[in-house]
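[step 3/7] inverse_fold.run input=structure_tokens len=383
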């Protein structure tokens, strides 16, 4: 069996498994569809999947037709600013030796050559640096563009972090339900915190208008309830009076008829009073439901910042994602599951601890959802 090597796509930084015999050849990345050179990745990087033979382009890469090679890692395995290694120069045709020049002329010629090379190199370096720093990274959001120059500057000594995990729900019966095809997104923490603050500020403005309406509706409902209770008690008294006449030793039928009429009138008034009370109670319930939305996960996930990287769980609920080692990020995910006639929805916003190491395991389950009050959850909701 051929030995297997781990290779890394230089464009989307996805790791794959490939036979070592194919190192040095070109391959097409299944995710970003870009062509890259098969080279061994650092030992700390783990592969997510294997390359199909159809994705490995036939033939080795020659020195003249190979595309420029972009390197971003030093010998120690840490990412470095991208540099381009130019292809081999064409062979120089031999020429006859020049005529002898005087030492003074040779010294002047050497001085001018060094001066021109220095100025030309400075101009080329500045132009290339400006071009690289202005080029946006693949997948960067339009609202907050991250450039290659900025990332290279921040990641000089910080490796990428490989995060593996599972998405599952533990049922009351003690079973773990694995959730497949769940999108796991990576969001910069500063953008997520800013989004949460904006949502909370908007919630306070809405509650300032909604809470007085709820209090007024509750007050009206309570008054209608008391009126209904008064008429209910009156109907009970009339009912007891008619029954006492009926069960007397000598029934006064005329008095019983009058008592029954009063009981019917009281019952009718009670039923009529129950209608406005029930309407007022439904109004209060509706207003309270509107208020509860502002404390739900769906409220905070509405308009959540776009992810800079995304992956999906497989059929076993497992996922793998690469996280930049610098800065602060959070994993966000939403999922749903049918339970009988109901649909349960799940939300996660978990902070990634970049100081925990280059290989981490983060599981998304019941105990770290937004409604769980888990400390690693960035968003805390009532449901």
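[step 3/7] decode complete -> sequence:
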């Amino acid at each position: 069996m051929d030995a297997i090597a781990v290779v890394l796509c230089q464009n989307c930084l996805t790791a794959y498994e490939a036979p070592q015999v194919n190192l040095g050849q070109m391959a097409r990345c299944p995710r970003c569809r870009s062509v890259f050179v098969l080279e061994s990745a650092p030992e700390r990087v783990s592969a997510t999947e294997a390359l199909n033979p159809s994705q490995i382009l036939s033939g080795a890469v020659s020195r003249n037709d190979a595309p420029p090679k972009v390197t971003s890692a030093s010998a120690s395995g840490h990412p470095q600013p991208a540099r381009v290694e130019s292809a081999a120069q064409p062979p120089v045709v031999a020429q006859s030796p020049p005529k002898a020049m005087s030492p003074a002329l040779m010294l002047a010629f050497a001085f001018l050559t060094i001066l021109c090379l220095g100025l030309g190199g400075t101009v080329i370096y500045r132009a290339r640096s400006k071009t690289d720093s202005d080029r946006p990274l693949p997948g960067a959001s339009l609202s907050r563009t991250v450039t290659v120059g900025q990332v290279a500057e921040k990641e000089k000594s910080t490796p990428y972090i490989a995060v593996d995990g599972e998405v599952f729900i533990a049922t009351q019966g003690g079973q773990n339900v694995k959730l497949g095809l769940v999108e796991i997104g990576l969001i910069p923490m500063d953008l997520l915190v800013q989004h949460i603050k904006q949502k909370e500020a908007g919630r306070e403005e809405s509650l300032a208008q909604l809470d007085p309406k709820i209090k007024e509706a509750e007050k009206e409902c309570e008054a209608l309830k008391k009126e209904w209770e008064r008429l209910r008690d009156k109907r009970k008294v009339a009912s007891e009076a008619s029954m006492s006449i009926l069960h007397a030793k000598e029934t006064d039928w005329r008095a019983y008829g009058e008592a029954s009429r009063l009981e019917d009138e009281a019952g009718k008034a009670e039923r009529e009073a129950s209608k406005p009370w029930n309407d007022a109670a439904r109004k209060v319930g509706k207003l309270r439901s509107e208020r509860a939305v502002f404390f739900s996960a769906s409220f905070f996930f509405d308009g959540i910042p776009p992810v800079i990287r995304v992956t999906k769980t497989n059929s076993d609920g497992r996922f793998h994602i690469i996280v930049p080692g610098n800065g602060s990020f959070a994993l966000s995910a939403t999922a749903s599951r049918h339970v009988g006639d109901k649909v349960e929805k799940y939300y996660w916003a978990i902070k990634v601890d970049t100081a925990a190491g280059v290989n981490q395991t983060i599981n998304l389950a019941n105990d770290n959802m937004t409604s769980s009050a888990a400390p690693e959850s960035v968003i805390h909701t009532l449901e």
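[step 4/7] annotate
Confidence is low (pLDDT under 50) at residues 59-98, 132-149.
The radius of gyration is 37 Å.
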